[in-house]
Specification:
It is built from no helices and 11 strands. The mean pLDDT is 97. It has strands at residues 3-7, 10-13, 18-25, 34-39, 46-51, 57-58, 67-72, 77-82, 91-97, 100-101, 105-110. A hairpin with a 4-residue loop joins strand 7 and strand 8. The radius of gyration is 13 Å and the shape is globular. The chain is an all-beta fold.
Length: 111
Amino acid sequence: QVQLVESGGGLVQAGGSLNLSCVASGIDLSDGQTGWYRVAPGKPREWAGVITRGGSTLYPDSVKGRFTVSRDTAKNTVFLQMNDLKPEDTAVYYCNFLQWWGQGTQVNVSS
């Protein structure tokens, strides 16, 4: 059974940092691209960063320079390090690998 489990969300003040984790079981995250996505209240889903099979990373302009995606192949885990958080980063964050999605972790950034 394939599972993606996110953790690390919480409440943080603007300018703070959080490090989200996405632990996979039943699949090998190094076999493909893993993406982080977020859904804010009343807004469509948007991507927050991806790491490719080869280890390259891509980010949308909204988080570039503040978010970093990394992968620990030994732990079969992908991370999203979020720095200099802003209230507009408030959302539920999900990781995605192929057709699989995690349950999400809530991030709240207070001003």
